[in-house]
């Protein structure tokens, strides 16, 4: 970005040769106009058919500086980023430069709030999760198949997505925009063969007390294909633990980013840069990108940059907290410029970063640190940065910062900045973005040497119930392989008893027992905010035996639990599949 800008305060100057120009506040007496939606200086156009003191129709005169301006490179730059120049756009840009018009398109306002999506929200665990989150003041959105049932149960004003995880066409990702976290309580429906009461009293007792059968879609459709569909729908909204790679990666270094040089030639300067791929330039001996060139202050220039062409579809980075650059420094200060509009001459969101000479380093640039800048001036009234609508990226080495400040590391001459990757990142400590309610027993149906007669009904009847536990395990595996920060909760038999009993958290899929649905809902909500719950899979039950009911004295309720104590004791990587000795579950 140039510090030289034509604005409403820039006087239009008469020129003795019959042309026109505008003054710019760069500390020097410059002249410039905007052409083709970009600023350049100092050139003058003059009408033809005049005396010798005036220019011919095609003549362009360069003032200030000792080096000639490369108009050919200027035109190539113009063509590379915007295609064939549009004469009407050129005229509009010239007029706006002298009238002080604002950019043609203002950046969109950022969509805020960390919405939690609750799926299976009309079920026994899901509706309790909704209730707890509401009491905490957390904004929620729910996914349900039946609108009438959802609104009657959760209220007429509930933020509702009507959809079915078994039907991918109902899960348009645009419905999930703004969602940062998910509690998934969707489960295949199991009910009594002989039927149930209107309020499902038999179901609430658990399948230990009735002969079960699958009601509705199969376990494969709900637990496996449904999980695939849900992950695909929310993945861009909730983000990935390793971040979203925008540039870099073995065999895909350039990705979908098309880089081009954008130097001070657009304002009459002579600096020149380029983007290259170095096949063995990275710190691991692999390929890397390279921003290099020569910068000069001749002709009142002083910056070089490489910029991507506008993305075909804007990148939605709203799930992330910033952009990380992996660079090999040269001791200079550079800029990252992120744009949220397809217009050329509009606000850019900028952060400067320093580098250490000769060292590979990770530069983290939080979105919150980006400054809105337009024509080298900060714009305090500009809309906040909209991470959901990123349209291009730019790296710059410049003499100027903005608002008249200078780059303290600037020197003329050769420079180069290798960069091996650009990715969006999630701030640490990372907390779960997907909390999934599964079931204890998912690894047991095919476990060698297991006495099924001593196992819960769902384990014994796995095949009769459409391989329900096998598909629950396959759904879990999809989550673990997705890259989404997750927690998988495996409750033992669910009851309608109140929360508050003492609990046992375990791993390895070995315990049996019961647990309150209310308790499971509380665990899920607590996990959403816990870095200690990330990438943990665990079973949970109460210490109260099946044969004993658990009741709470309303006048003396049990104290609220600190679930962090349990989360901290859990380990990553333990799923119970270890006992299968590497043998995949059979369907």
Explained architecture:
This protein is α+β, with helices and mostly antiparallel strands and 587 residues long. It folds into two domains: 115-241 and 430-580, NAD(P)-binding Rossmann-like Domain (Rossmann fold), CATH 3.40.50; 246-425, Galactose-binding lectin (Jelly Rolls, Sandwich). It has ten helices and 31 strands. It has an eight-stranded mixed beta sheet, sandwiched between helices. A hairpin with a 2-residue loop joins β3 and β4. The protein is elongated, with a radius of gyration of 31 Å.
Short synopsis of the structure:
The chain has 587 residues and is an alpha+beta fold.
- Give the CATH superfamily of the largest domain: NAD(P)-binding Rossmann-like Domain
CATH top level of the largest domain is Alpha Beta
Helical fraction: 10-25%
Whole-number mean pLDDT: 82
**Helix/strand-derived class?**
alpha+beta
Radius of gyration: 31 Å
* Biggest sheet descriptor: 8 strands, mixed
Molecular shape:
elongated
**Biggest β-sheet: strands ordered side by side in the sheet:** 9-8-7-10-26-27-31-29
Q: Specify the number of helices.
A: 10
- CATH topology of the largest domain: the name is Rossmann fold
Which segments are poorly predicted (pLDDT under 50) over 5 or more consecutive residues?
A: 1-65, 93-112, 583-587
CATH architecture annotation of the largest domain:
3-Layer(aba) Sandwich
- List the domain count as a whole number: 2
């Amino acid at each position: 970005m140039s510090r030289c800008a034509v604005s409403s305060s820039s006087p239009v100057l008469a020129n003795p040769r019959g042309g026109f120009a505008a003054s710019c506040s760069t500390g020097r007496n410059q002249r410039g106009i905007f052409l083709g939606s970009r600023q350049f200086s100092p050139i003058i156009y003059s009408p033809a058919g005049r005396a010798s003191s005036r220019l011919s129709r095609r003549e362009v005169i360069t003032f200030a500086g000792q080096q000639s301006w490369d108009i050919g490179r200027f035109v190539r730059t113009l063509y590379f980023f915007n295609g064939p120049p549009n004469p009407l756009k050129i005229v509009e840009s010239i007029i706006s430069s002298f009238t002080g018009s604002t950019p043609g398109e203002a950046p969109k306002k950022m969509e805020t709030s960390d919405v939690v999506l609750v799926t299976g929200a009309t079920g026994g665990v899901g509706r309790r999760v909704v209730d707890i989150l509401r009491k905490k003041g957390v904004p929620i959105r729910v996914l349900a198949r039946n609108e009438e049932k959802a609104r009657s149960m959760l209220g007429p004003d509930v933020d509702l997505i009507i959809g079915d995880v078994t039907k991918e066409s109902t899960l348009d990702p645009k419905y999930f925009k703004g969602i940062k976290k998910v509690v998934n309580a969707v489960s295949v429906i199991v009910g009594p063969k002989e039927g149930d009461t209107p309020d499902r009293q038999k179901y609430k007792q658990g399948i230990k007390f009735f002969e079960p059968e699958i009601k509705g879609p199969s376990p494969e459709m709900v637990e496996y294909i449904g999980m695939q569909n849900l992950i695909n729908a929310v993945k861009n909204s909730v983000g990935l633990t390793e971040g979203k790679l925008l540039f870099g990666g073995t065999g895909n270094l350039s990705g979908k980013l098309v880089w081009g040089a954008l130097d001070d030639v657009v304002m009459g300067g002579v600096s020149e840069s380029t983007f290259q791929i170095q096949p063995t330039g990275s710190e691991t001996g692999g390929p890397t990108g390279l921003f290099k060139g020569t910068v000069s202050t001749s002709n009142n220039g002083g910056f070089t940059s490489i910029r991507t062409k506008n993305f075909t579809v804007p990148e939605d980075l709203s799930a992330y907290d910033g952009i990380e650059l992996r660079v090999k420094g040269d001791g200079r200060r550079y800029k990252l410029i992120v744009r949220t509009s397809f217009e050329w001459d509009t606000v850019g969101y900028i952060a400067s970063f320093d580098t250490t000479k000769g060292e590979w380093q990770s530069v983290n640039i939080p979105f919150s640190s980006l400054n809105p800048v337009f024509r080298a001036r900060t714009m305090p009234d500009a809309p906040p940065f909209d991470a959901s609508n990123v349209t291009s990226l730019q790296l710059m080495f410049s003499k100027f910062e903005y608002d008249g400040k200078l780059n303290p590391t600037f020197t003329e001459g050769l420079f180069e900045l290798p960069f091996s990757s650009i990715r969006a990142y999630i701030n640490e400590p990372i907390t779960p973005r997907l909390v999934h309610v599964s079931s204890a027993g998912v690894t047991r149906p095919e476990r060698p040497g297991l006495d099924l007669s001593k196992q819960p009904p769902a384990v014994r009847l796995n095949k009769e119930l459409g391989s329900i536990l096998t598909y629950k395990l396959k759904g879990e595996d999809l989550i673990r392989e997705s890259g989404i920060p997750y927690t998988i909760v495996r409750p033992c038999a669910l009851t309608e008893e109140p929360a508050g009993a003492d609990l046992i958290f375990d791993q390895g899929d070995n315990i049996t027992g019961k647990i309150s649905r209310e308790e499971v809902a509380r665990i899920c909500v607590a996990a959403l905010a816990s870095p200690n719950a990330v990438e943990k899979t665990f079973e949970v039950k109460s210490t109260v035996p099946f044969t004993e009911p658990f009741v709470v004295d309303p006048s003396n309720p049990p104290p609220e639990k600190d679930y962090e104590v349990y989360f901290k004791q859990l380990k990553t990587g333990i799923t119970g599949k270890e006992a299968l000795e590497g043998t995949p579950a059979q369907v």
